[in-house]
Amino acid sequence: MKLHIETTINGEPAEYLCEPHETLLSVLRNGVGLTGTKEGCSTGDCGACSVLLDGRLVPSCLVLAPEAQGRTVTTIEGLARGDRLHPLQQKFLEHAALQCGICTPGFIVAAAALLDKNPNPTETEVRYWLAGNLCRCTGYDKIIKAVLDSSAQLQKAAV
Amino acid sequence: MAYHFRMPAIRYEAPRSVAEAVRLIQTDPGARVLAGGTDLLVQFHAGLRQPTAFVDIKRIPELVGVSLDANGLRLGAATAAAVVCEHPDVRALWPGVVDAVHLIGSTQIQGRGTVGGNLCNGSPAADSTCALIVNRADCVIAGPKGERVVAVENFCIAPGKTVLETGEFLVAVRLPRPAPRTADAYLRLIPRTEMDIAVAGAAVSITLDGSGMCTAARVAIGAVAPTALLVPEAAKALVGSRLEDDALARAAAAASVAAKPIDDKRGTVAYRKSVAGVLVKRAAKIAAGRAKGH
Questions:
Q1: What is the pLDDT of residues B39-67, one digit of tens each?
Q2: B42 to A57: CB separation less than 8 angstroms, yes or no
């Protein structure tokens, strides 16, 4: 029997029907149509499916869809403001911090969670925070630079 | 959808009280308690577990959250690892617990995975277990016959096996307040810098007197036996010392003797026994340094 779940996704009230054992990742992609969140390993090892659940960074492949009842979910689609990209999205483009792009939404959501908690991280802090996001293309260096540059830009904007 | 047909319908339950959760798991032997899901859902997706119901315990108020009172700390069993590591009282009083919990998986996993789940999964390499053991933590278990309390070093009985009986689940982990000038530390060895499972791990808690003499100690080692081990002989080697080299060497030797590891892809028996001793020595120094600062 399908469950009817009412939740908040990217600031908007949302509802969906799901199987009791279905993952939040599956519902986001196949039910709600938010395909920005990617499926990588489905075992919580790769970070491609990262979302924020009540503001907390989690792997959506290891969250059951009914768990989102009454909670708030933020996905990659919730970061841009209309046509204006999130600074992290802009900096990923400027630094060419992506190649195939499958890992990118997970990296950006995870990095957004980091900058929210720690607006001025060191390179080491960025590397450890993102250790659970795997990228098989870039070699990570451009990703780290893009995150540090976003942090610098956000700091400047805050002054 | 293909796999849906070979699976009987699975229920999702989100009880609001401990009593309701006990009733759900007592009446349905196939029900599995869901906390962070970072072990259970992986095992479910791999076909290793086919629960009849997921009983999500995170909507039970006393299962989530960290609270400190005169007696000590209470960690709701379903509290996410990240919440534990961010808590200022935990950071101040149990830095070794933070060392250990912070090593459980990635940032994402820490947003979901719980200390209670780390215990209940029963892995001999679980990072948090050693740190809880040296802090004399105990486990509050709810079940059909009411509540019972088990010392954390007795909670896991074999790889993947715990003392939990049918209808029982872990409600909280409690840590008594440390004595003055007491501190802890946890170290593990992995062949990379992050995101791995311990080859060996060690936690040490040290109490110093005003002159820097060790008056009490607890030592535990992980990933080197079917369960994490409390090693009283290693602690004995430290008590009465000022953590001089010979006392540390005796503690390390005692840990190496107590270790009963297996050979596997992560390390050989001889290597793990040796590393367990080295980690005890290093963790003891860190704990003592922290205890001086208190």
A1: 999 999 999 999 999 999 999 999 999 99
A2: no
Task: Please indicate if any CB of chain A lies within 8 Å of the CB of B41.
Answer: yes
Q: Chain A contact for B42, CB < 8 A?
A: yes
Q: Does B106 contact A53 at a Cβ distance shorter than 8 Å?
A: no
What number is the ipTM of this complex? 0.96
Q: Which spans in B56-179 are helix H?
A: 81-86, 88-93, 95-101, 107-112, 115-120, 127-134
**Are A42 and B45 inside 8 Å of each other by CB?**
yes
Q: Does A128 touch chain B (CB under 8 A)?
A: yes
Q: Measured between CB atoms, does A21 come within 8 Å of chain B?
A: yes
| Mutation for A interface: B5, B7, B49, B107, most A CBs within 10 A | B107
Q: Which residues contact B202 (CB under 8 A, 6 or more apart)?
A: B130, B186, B187, B188, B219, B220, B221, B222, B255, B276, B279, B280, B282, B283
- Mean pLDDT of the A12-24 span: 97
* Residues B137 and B168: beta-carbon distance below 8 Å: no
Torsion of CA A14, A15, A21, A22, to 10 degrees: -60
Interhelix angle A87-94/A141-158, rounded to 10 degrees, is 140
Query: Which residues in chain B touch residue A19, judged by CB atoms under 8 angstroms apart?
Result: 4, 10
Amino acid identity of A15?
A: E
Tell me whether B255 touches chain A (CB under 8 Å): no
Using CA atoms, how far apart are residues A13 and A15, in angstroms rounded to an integer?
7
Domains of chain B, start order? 8-59 (3.30.43.10), 61-176 (3.30.465.10), 182-293 (3.30.390.50)
Options 3.40.30.10, 3.10.20.30, 2.40.10.480, 3.40.50.1820; which CATH number does A3-78 get?
A: 3.10.20.30
| Cβ–Cβ below 8 Å for B112 and A50 | no
pLDDT of A78-109, one tens digit each?
999 999 999 999 999 999 999 999 999 999 99
CA dihedral (B143, B151, B204, B263) positive or negative:
negative
